[in-house]
Amino acid sequence: MSSAPFWRAFVDFFLPPKCPFCEDLTDSFFSGRPCPSCLSRIKFFSPPRCPRCGIGFPSPSEQDHLCSGCLSGEPPFAKARSLCPYEGLIAEIISRFKFGGVASLAKPLGILLAEYQDPEFPFSGIDLLIPVPLHTRRLRERGFNQSLLLAREVSRRRSIPLNFTALRRSRQTQPQTHLSGPQRQKNVRGAFEVRSAAGLVEKRVLLIDDVFTTGATVQECAKALLDAGAKSVDVLTLARVA
Ligand SMILES: [Zn+2]
Ligand SMILES: [Zn+2]
Predict the structure, then answer these.
(1) What tens digit of pLDDT does each residue of 153-174 get?
(2) Residue-range definition of the domain harbouring residue 72
(3) What is the pLDDT of residue 242?
(4) Whole-prediction pTM value?
(5) For the domain that residue 87 is a member of, what is the CATH number?
(6) How many domains does one find in the chain?
(7) Measured in angstroms, how far is the CA atom of residue 42 from the centroid of ligand 1?
(8) Closest-lying ligand to the alpha carbon of 78?
(9) Which DSSP symbol is given to 115?
(10) How far away, in angstroms, is 61 Cα from ligand 1 center?
(11) In a domain, 52, yes or no
(12) Residue 208 is inside which H or E element, if any?
C-alpha cells in the first residue's frame, strides 16, 4: 500500500488546501489548479474560430474560416490562440497577478496555459518558448515579468526550452489599454529587438503573453523573431479582449 494518502492527509491537516483563485478550501492542493467552481466560471473558447488569429465567431453553426482582419492583412505569426475572453473571473485574476503583484498566481495560470489542448495547435511542434518582454523600467516597477512567469510554468510542464534573453523591448511604450487599434500599432512599432539570434535560427517559436488585445504587440515580436531567422512564430495567451 502506498503511503501517499497518509502524507496527503497529514499535509492537508496542517496546510488546508485552498483554491489559488477564490481561496476556498479545495482538494486540489497538490495540483495547484483552480477549484472546479472557479474553472466553471471561465468561458473557454471553442470552435468556430479564425484558424489564423484564433478569434471566435458567435454562431456555433459556422465553420472555421479566416476573419476579416486576417483576410485583409496576414499577421506575421502563423497561429494565435487564447484560452478565453478577457472578462469576469479571469480578468480579475490576471489583474490581481499583474497589477496587484500576486506573483504566486503564475502557477495556476501557467497550468491553464500548459494544459491548453488543441489538435491544430500542438505543443509538440514547438522548439522554444519566448515570453513577451517588458521594458526594464516597467520591470523595475512591477518586480516581475508576468509573461516570463507564465512561460516558465509552461516550459516546466511541457519540457520545452525557454529563452527570455533573446528578445528585448528596446523602447518604453505607453500602456495599450486606452489606445485605438492604429495607435497601438504605432505605439509598439519597432519596440522589440533581438539581442542574440544564435539560438533562434530555424526554430519554431511559441510566444507567451497574458492578454491578446489587438495583437499589435505580438505581431511586432513575431516580426523581430522572424527577421532574426526563426522558422515560425505562434502565439499563446491566457485571454483575449473581445
Ligand atoms: Zn476557486
Ligand atoms: Zn483572424
Answers:
(1) 999 999 999 999 999 998 887 7
(2) 64-240
(3) 83
(4) 0.90
(5) 3.40.50
(6) 1
(7) 11
(8) 2
(9) T
(10) 32
(11) no
(12) strand 204-212
Cα 220–223–224 angle (5° rounding)?
90
Average pLDDT, the chain: 91
Q: State the cell numbers at 55.
A: 478569434
Distance 242 CA to ligand 2 centre (A): 13
CB-count burial class (<10 Å; 0-12, 13-18, 19+) for 217: buried
Counting ligands in written order, which one lies closest to the CA of residue 92? 1
CA 26 / ligand 1 centre spacing (Å): 8
36 within a domain of the structure (yes/no): no
In percent, the amount of the chain with pLDDT more than 70 equals 93
Cell numbers linked to 201? 535560427
Residue range 36-70, pLDDT digits in tens: 999 999 999 999 999 999 998 888 888 999 999 99
Distance 72 CA to ligand 2 centre (A): 10
Of 189, 199, 23, the residue nearest 225 (C-alpha): 199
Ligand nearest to the CA of 77: 2
Residue 26 maps to a domain: no
152's grid cell: 516558465
The x, y and z cell numbers of residue 136, run together, are 526594464
Ligand whose nearest atom lies closest to the CA of 21: 1
Alpha helices in the chain (DSSP H): 4-14, 36-40, 68-72, 88-98, 106-114, 136-142, 146-158, 181-188, 216-227
Per the domain annotation, does 51 fall within a domain?
no
